[in-house]
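Example S7 (structure tokens).
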């Protein structure tokens, strides 16, 4: 797919050097592929839209001559506004699974400098540090040592391996800015009188084999040895390092998180990212978009996230950061950041859990409970087609295999899913999310995972969607169960109302006024779209129509070429705090060209 973002101002053209913030296509491997995999758990959310509307009859007149489309660089665009201001609804949310609280208590202190080398970590931690020093690119950090301790403690407390959410929550709590995490544990019963040094020496062979799974590359690793009676755990946590945290500051007075990250050089060289998307959970159910500093060029990433003033003081919010390679619909999870409330001492996290044996049936009422609490319109159920089910299984199966060919298959399947749950029912706006669990988690974990983090929560909380479709729970791989869900806005009349709604939601989230009517503007844009359908270049078509209509300055025309309407919102001019009013009209044609006209006056 090729994306084109162009801005035209009264006869002049320009190109955006970089899109402004988008929401969340996210791909997260919470039990990653760093070394030998213990259990695979996928949790991702992606956004997308298919636009294929009838532009109506061509205009009677048009520009003087056709022109070829502009040659613009490829851009991925799977975007949707994070939930903005509340929308009123008269519906009643149906009953949803009751949540329960699961408390995870930490004893290891959070390191003040997470990426500092892990020191004073005992005989096992020292061995992990020496291993890291022998491998290029590998760092043994205080944060990953903290995470290893947290994983081991959770294992001792529950008797089970760390599940899906813990593999994101624990590193985030320890300040480790890692993407995928692999966890391996050597568990033995041994006399408590035996010293830690003797334990490590006595199991030198198995521990060396465990360390042998770590390979050179951008990895942060940490080790912890935990003892509880006769139970002894040697834990090795390996995190894929896609970013290095340079600044992370909570400004309580302003109610914001200020973050500055640097993408790992080897990662930046391997993937040509063209956009970064930071999101943050907001309160019990909601999610907010962070304000990305678009003046910073990759590999530098800087953003500001809003904090919920009404959230319980001891609660924890989670910010997720995702980057998108050029031309890709699947994003790369860069990091999850824990944002504790002002009264949170870091010793405990309370996790929401749901009792559910049928996550497919329970997902809709749970989503509608959240949407009703946030003032969003309730979703209606839509049954998946056979094609949707097949593509969902292809998507998760391809992600599980993690090979270049499988990645291409996943991209193709995802694009099909984004276009709608049924080929016979087109969608103006669609967002696709998924979650998988391993054998150590119950079905309710699929629901809990969907609302635990901002990326997956945003799929279900999209304010512009109206329907929800979900697959039945199915086996992805041995021991791994998956669920794919999507929210959609069915195709409306060809007035591109979805475009206007998306832009208004984004503006209202920034405290700006929604667009105002402007007589004649929609006609101008409709005529330009008809000209495009007849073969004229989009920029030339709208420039000619604006000049012909003699609209007052300043006039901005935005042209988008691609399969999703959502991406129109990335143009900063649409989010400007104009002293006057903002008029907006949009139209699109069958092959996906969207023309948006904006007129602001002071």
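Recovered sequence:
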């Amino acid at each position: 797919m090729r994306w084109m973002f162009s801005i035209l101002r009264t006869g002049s053209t320009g190109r955006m050097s970089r899109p402004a913030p988008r929401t969340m296509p996210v791909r997260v491997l919470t039990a990653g592929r760093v070394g030998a995999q213990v259990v695979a758990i996928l949790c991702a959310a992606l956004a997308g839209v298919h636009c294929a509307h009838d532009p109506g009859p061509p205009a009677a007149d048009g520009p003087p001559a056709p022109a070829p489309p502009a040659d613009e660089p490829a851009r991925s665009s799977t975007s949707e506004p994070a939930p903005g201001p509340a929308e009123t609804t008269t519906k009643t949310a149906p009953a949803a699974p009751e949540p329960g609280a699961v408390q995870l208590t930490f004893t290891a202190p959070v390191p003040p400098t997470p990426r500092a080398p892990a020191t004073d970590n005992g005989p096992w931690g020292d061995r992990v540090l020496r291993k890291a020093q022998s491998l290029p690119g590998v760092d043994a950090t205080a944060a990953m040592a903290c995470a290893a301790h947290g994983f081991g403690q959770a294992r001792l407390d529950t008797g089970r391996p760390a599940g899906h959410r813990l593999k994101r929550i624990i590193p985030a709590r320890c300040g480790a800015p890692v993407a995928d995490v692999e966890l391996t544990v050597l568990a033995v019963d041994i006399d408590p009188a035996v010293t830690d040094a003797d334990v490590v020496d006595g199991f030198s062979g198995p521990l060396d084999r465990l360390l042998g799974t770590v390979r050179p590359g951008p990895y942060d690793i940490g080790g912890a040895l935990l003892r509880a009676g006769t139970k002894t755990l040697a834990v090795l946590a390996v995190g894929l390092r896609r970013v290095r945290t340079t600044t992370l500051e909570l400004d309580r007075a302003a109610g914001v998180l200020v973050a500055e990250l640097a993408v790992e050089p080897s990662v930046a060289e391997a993937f040509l990212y063209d956009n970064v998307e930071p999101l943050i959970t907001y309160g019990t159910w909601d999610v907010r978009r962070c304000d990305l500093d678009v003046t910073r060029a990759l590999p530098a990433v800087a953003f500001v996230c809003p904090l919920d003033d009404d959230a319980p003081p001891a609660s924890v919010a989670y910010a997720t950061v995702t980057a998108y390679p050029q031309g890709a619909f699947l994003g790369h999870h860069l990091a999850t950041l824990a944002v504790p409330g002002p009264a949170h001492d870091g010793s405990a996290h309370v996790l929401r859990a749901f009792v559910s044996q049928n996550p497919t049936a329970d997902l809709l009422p749970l989503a509608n409970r959240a949407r009703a609490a946030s003032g969003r319109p309730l979703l209606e159920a839509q049954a998946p087609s056979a094609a949707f089910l097949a593509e969902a299984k292809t998507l998760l199966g391809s992600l599980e295999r993690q090979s270049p060919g499988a990645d291409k298959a996943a991209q193709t399947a995802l694009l099909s899913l984004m276009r709608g749950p049924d080929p016979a029912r087109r969608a103006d706006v669609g967002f696709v999310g998924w979650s998988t669990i391993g054998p150590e988690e119950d079905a309710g974990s699929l629901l809990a995972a969907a609302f635990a983090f901002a990326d997956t929560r945003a799929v279900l909380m999209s304010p512009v969607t109206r329907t929800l479709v979900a697959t039945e729970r199915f086996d992805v791989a041995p021991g791994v169960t998956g669920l794919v869900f999507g929210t959609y806005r069915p195709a409306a009349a060809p007035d591109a109302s979805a475009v206007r709604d998306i832009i208004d939601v984004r503006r209202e989230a920034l405290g700006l006024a929604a667009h105002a009517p402007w007589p004649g503007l929609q006609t101008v844009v409709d005529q330009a779209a008809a000209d495009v359908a007849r073969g004229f270049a989009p920029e030339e078509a709208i420039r000619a129509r604006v000049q012909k209509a003699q609209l007052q300055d300043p006039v901005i025309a935005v042209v988008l070429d691609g399969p999703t309407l959502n991406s129109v919102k990335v143009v900063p001019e649409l989010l400007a705090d104009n002293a006057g009013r903002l008029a907006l009209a949009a139209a699109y044609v069958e092959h996906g060209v969207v023309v948006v006209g904006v007129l602001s006056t002071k």
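Notes on this example. Residues 1-81, 83-90 have pLDDT under 50 and may be disordered.
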